[in-house]
Amino acid sequence: MRITTRCLLHPNLVVFHKQDLLRSIVLNATSTKSVEDTSSITENLSTDTIGMSSPKRFVNNSLKRKKSLTAPQWVKLNVEYNSSYGTPLPKEMTKANEFFNKAKVEFEWGVTSFDSILSEIVRKKLKVRDDGNQISKNGTKKFVGKTNIPFKLINGLPEITFLGRSNAGKSSMLNNLLTQLGCRKLTDEARMSSRPGFTKTLNCFNIGNKFRLIDTPGYGFGSKFDQGSLTMKYIENREELVRCFVLIPANQGFTNLDLQILNYLKGIGKPFEVVFTKMDKVKDINILKRQIEDSGIIDYATLPKLLFTNSMTSKNCPKRYGITELRHTIMQSCNMLVN
Ligand SMILES: Nc1nc2c(ncn2[C@@H]2O[C@H](COP(=O)(O)OP(=O)(O)OP(=O)(O)O)[C@@H](O)[C@H]2O)c(=O)[nH]1
Ligand SMILES: [Mg+2]
């Protein structure tokens, strides 16, 4: 496995990906189970580990109900395309679900320009001393005499961002992550809409004071140039950003713009993964598989993970699948699964 890549903007700079290091560690640490084995682990975890469906409830259900809870075929793609990572450890999956199910979520800021992110203002105004003398140990206290910005907003928590074209399902995915696994109705932390171009600002959510999830305005149809440059500036300059998740609506496949964004991230050496949304709308997974092959992403030296999800449920897709895998990957990116 190659663990370095050349930065396209700076060909002399070899970028060493933390992501790749992690991957090689996971590879070495985990056993190589078959696709069938791993998908059953994932499925069991999705229902059992969070205690949303007791075994008794299943015994009492009719055969018809049992049938309707059968996972769709595409759920296995989560294992099929990520075999180079080995099987995620069940205890890690449990930990990820427990964290997201319980985490306190707080909306912290929404901005239309990068320079109005509070911590960026502080960064500009203050040269924070390495010994931390100007920072109160009490998270609620403020910078004395310099700014009124609470310390908790500049505490440098790792940040995760969702990128994707307008209407790809970014805001829905954020809500999906933050909704208890057994619930069908999503929480409404981030506002969602069927109207493309709905999210117009960069929105930050603090998750359990461990990391931040950043929802972005979509690119392409319905979006504005300013929103695109805001997102670009954030990606290129934000020190706290540890991982980008590029969302692709699986029922539509890749657009040229999606491929440009993926190439751009690869070029500037930003670690990223690819998340397919709206899998419940995919009629033929072979078409999607061909599109993935044609896109060339499986040949990327950075080995992005490919995750397959649905945020909305339906008769054929009675649960929200793939979300445990996404939660696990996010926590891994924030180094929260060590030990
Ligand atoms: N069927 C289905 N619909 C989805 C899914 N995810 C999102 N949607 C729908 O897609 C539409 C767009 O969802 P949003 O989450 O607002 O999309 P967005 O990427 O945030 O869009 P912008 O803010 O405009 O960039 C909404 O009508 C959602 O209900 C999914 O997994 N399945
Ligand atoms: Mg949105």
From TrEMBL:
Keywords, sorted A to Z: GTP-binding, Magnesium, Metal-binding, Nucleotide-binding
Family matches, as InterPro entries: EngB_GTPase, G_ENGB_dom, GTP-bd, P-loop_NTPase
Molecular function, one GO term: GTP binding
CDD domains: YihA_EngB
Gene Ontology cellular component terms for the protein in this record: mitochondrion
Pfam families noted in UniProt: MMR_HSR1
SUPFAM superfamilies: P-loop containing nucleoside triphosphate hydrolases
Domain EngB-type G: from-to ranges: 156-336
Coiled coil, from the record: none
Protein name, UniProt field: EngB-type G domain-containing protein
